[in-house]
Design goal:
Elements: E1 2-9, H1 19-38, E2 42-47, E3 53-56, E4 61-64, E5 74-82, H2 85-92, E6 103-108
Antiparallel strand pairs: 1-5, 1-6, 2-5, 3-4
């Protein structure tokens, strides 16, 4: 088994969603992650805050805030186990973010 990182972009806007929409979305996420955990595929993960800091270049310049379009900001991630990239993609297809027109990027974790 290999480790893969699923990076989540877009999806439900937490700042404008109703409490009912938030509760419904969180239940879908909990159920999906519970299924991955039951199948021994889930390694962990979290939601990320929208703001952040970028440190750039030789001079190590510091920039605050998201610097991409909001739908492209990485809003969270999970680490999973899968036999190969195609299997990781199939697992990612079950992500609830797609109910809200979100994006999942599947990346294999490189061994150092």
């Amino acid at each position: 088994m290999k480790d893969y990182l699923l990076l989540f972009r877009g999806g439900l806007d937490f700042s404008t969603a109703t409490p009912e929409q938030l509760q419904q979305a969180m239940m879908k996420w909990r159920n999906w992650i519970a299924e991955l955990t039951k199948d021994a595929r889930y390694n962990g993960g979290n939601r990320l805050e929208n703001n952040g800091t970028v440190i750039k270049g030789v001079k190590k310049q510091i920039f605050d805030g998201p610097h991409t379009e909001s739908k492209e900001i990485v809003g969270g991630y999970i680490s999973i186990k899968a036999g190969d990239k195609q299997e990781a993609i199939e697992i990612a297809k079950g992500c609830p973010i797609f109910n809200y027109d979100g994006i999942v990027e599947v990346r294999e974790v490189a061994k150092m």
